[in-house]
């Protein structure tokens, strides 16, 4: 291999590497919209308080009430049992019969 061919390959490899680095940097660079709105997670860690969010399920409401101390552990467990019983009543599991055990 000639000395000139080796340099040519190295230049092509260098240009390709720099192009890939530039493409990766542009892909992960924050857009103008992302820079305008502060990061909620970073804001929460700076202040030490998480932003309150509304739970999307009954279980989430119960969990937030338990954490806030609005209900006791036994009240929480009783409510979870009632939810499970209601779900079982509304959507019972249909277990197919096994021919060997009938």
From TrEMBL:
Q: Disordered: where is this region?
A: 34-59
Protein name listed in UniProt: SHOCT domain-containing protein
């Amino acid at each position: 291999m000639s000395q000139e061919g080796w340099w040519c390959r190295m230049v092509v490899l260098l240009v390709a590497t720099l192009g890939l680095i530039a493409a990766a940097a542009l892909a992960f660079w924050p857009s103008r919209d992302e820079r305008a709105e502060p990061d909620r997670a970073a804001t929460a860690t700076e202040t030490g308080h998480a932003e309150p969010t509304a739970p999307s399920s009954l279980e989430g409401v119960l969990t937030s009430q338990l954490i806030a101390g609005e209900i006791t552990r036994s009240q929480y467990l009783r409510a979870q049992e009632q939810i499970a019983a209601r779900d079982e009543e509304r959507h019972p599991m249909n277990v197919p019969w096994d021919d060997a055990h009938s």
